[in-house]
Design a protein that fits this description.
With about 110 residues, this protein is mainly α. It is built from four helices and no strands. α1 packs parallel to α4 and α2 (about 35-60) packs antiparallel against α4 (about 95-110). The model has no long low-confidence stretch (mean pLDDT about 80).
C-alpha cells in the first residue's frame, strides 16, 4: 500500500515537472527576447524529464535484493537515481530532443 502511494506521488512529481517544462517552453517561444542560454537550458530540462519518464518503467521491473535492500527507501532512491540519470543523459548530449526543441523555439521567435 505504501509503495503504491509513493509511486502515485512520484508520478505526480514527474507530471508536475513535465508541465513546468512545457509552460517554460511556451513562455520562451512567445517572448521576444533572444536569451539563447535560457532556451537551451529549458530544452535540456525538457529532455531530462522526458528521458526520466522513459527510463522509469525499466527500473521498476528490476527485482530488489532482500538481504541488502528493498522497501520504501529503495523505491525513493531508485526514483531519484532515474531522475539524475535523465539529467545526466540530457546534459551529455541526450538523444536529440533538446536540439529539436531548441531549434523550434528559435523558429517560433523569428516568426
Amino acid at each position: 500500500m505504501e509503495t503504491q502511494l509513493f509511486n502515485t506521488a512520484q508520478t505526480n512529481v514527474f507530471a508536475a515537472q513535465s508541465e513546468a517544462s512545457k509552460d517554460r517552453l511556451n513562455q520562451l517561444a512567445t517572448s521576444k527576447s533572444d536569451d539563447r542560454t535560457a532556451m537551451r537550458k529549458t530544452a535540456e530540462d525538457f529532455e531530462a524529464v522526458f528521458l526520466s519518464q522513459m527510463l522509469r518503467p525499466m527500473f521498476e521491473t528490476l527485482p530488489t535484493d532482500t538481504m541488502m535492500g528493498g522497501g520504501q527507501a529503495e523505491s525513493v532512491y531508485r526514483g531519484l537515481m532515474v531522475e539524475e540519470m535523465g539529467k545526466s543523459i540530457a546534459k551529455s548530449g541526450g538523444v536529440g530532443i533538446a536540439d529539436s526543441v531548441f531549434r523550434e523555439l528559435l523558429k517560433l521567435q523569428e516568426g
